[in-house]
Design a protein that fits this description.
globular; alpha/beta; 2 domains; 10 helices; single chain; 41% helix; TIM Barrel; binds zinc ion
């Protein structure tokens, strides 16, 4: 009997290990099947239970769901698309840092806002697709918002991206090329991960200056070279621009257009979307309640 004891213990241990690793496999598989709001996944998933792979097989790489596209408006119609402006997605102490608080939306607020948008039937559109719609080169969304995130802060990758993915939303991230990799900002690896997740990478100048105060040569560099550098790093064209601090002039607009961009956003809060190079955006600040958010968006698309 004593001889068998170590063998028996070994068998019990091996069985426990198999059980634990199976449970781990199921746990890691859970997110991909748990997504029910995305039609493509629901279709693939059907009513079946996910098969449990043999324990010895390598675990599948879990891919987040592809972002949902938008439902096109009837030909010839171009419904207004509220363009929302975000900066940080993080929690900030209002008393200690009032400006930082104003520029930040908490992860919980962003999650609630995207949840409400989905429930209210809004889809998301990237700025490149919205510009194509405005130029008559692509379909226009029936009922959508455009989500934009300025400056390329690190939390765009760590915090905003997972929330966007959970809701199947796309967004446009405006990157300041000279700030990439600096403390508090994303590096190229994170920016490429955003690209791989279906997000659009736009340009926001080289060093975030007031473009209206620059000579023509420096202006062309800040506008054109920032996009070219980002395009080289991500291996995709960069067609969307955002004026630093929202500052622009007729010259700035002309240079942006000449540089090959198809749209540029401002910080004008309200206005028509007649010119793709002076697009207004709704500022989503830290003190905006969900009710305020709903009111703001619904004012444009009831
Ligand atoms: Zn900025």
């Amino acid at each position: 009997m004593k001889r068998f004891l170590p063998v028996m213990l070994g068998v019990i241990l091996a069985a426990a290990l198999v059980l634990i690793s199976q449970r781990e496999t199921e746990r890691r598989l859970a997110p991909i099947w748990a997504i029910s709001s995305f039609d493509g996944v629901r279709f693939i998933a059907g009513a079946r239970e996910p098969p449990s792979p043999p324990v010895s097989m390598p675990l599948p790489t879990l891919m987040p769901p592809a972002p949902r596209g938008f439902t096109p408006a009837p030909p010839g119609e171009r419904p207004y698309v509220p363009i929302l402006m975000y900066h940080y997605v993080r929690s900030v102490d209002r008393a200690a840092d009032p400006l930082g608080f104003s520029l930040s939306v908490t992860p919980e607020h962003l999650d609630a806002q995207l949840g409400w948008l989905t429930a209210a039937g809004y889809e998301s559109v990237r700025m490149d697709a919205l510009a194509a719609c405005m130029r008559g080169e692509g379909p226009c969304p029936l009922r959508a918002v455009a989500l934009t995130f300025d400056d390329g802060y690190a939390d765009a990758f760590t915090t905003a991206l997972p929330i966007l993915q959970r809701h199947g939303f796309v967004a446009t991230f405006y990157i300041v090329s000279g700030f990439v990799g600096q403390p508090g900002y994303m590096g190229w690896e994170e920016i490429r991960a955003l690209r791989d997740a279906g997000m659009e990478i736009g340009a926001h100048s080289i060093s975030h200056p007031d473009l209206t105060g620059l000579g023509l040569q420096e202006l062309r560099a800040q506008v054109g070279q920032s996009g070219a550098l980002i395009a080289a790093e991500i291996g995709q064209p960069v067609v969307s621009f955002c004026y630093p601090g929202g500052r622009f002039s007729d010259t700035v607009v002309a240079v942006t257009r000449e540089a090959g961009y198809t749209s540029a956003t401002t910080t004008i809060q309200d206005g028509p979307q007649s010119d793709p190079f002076t697009l207004p955006r709704l500022r989503i600040s830290g003190d905006l309640t969900l009710e305020g958010f709903q009111w703001m968006v619904a004012a444009y698309l009831p």
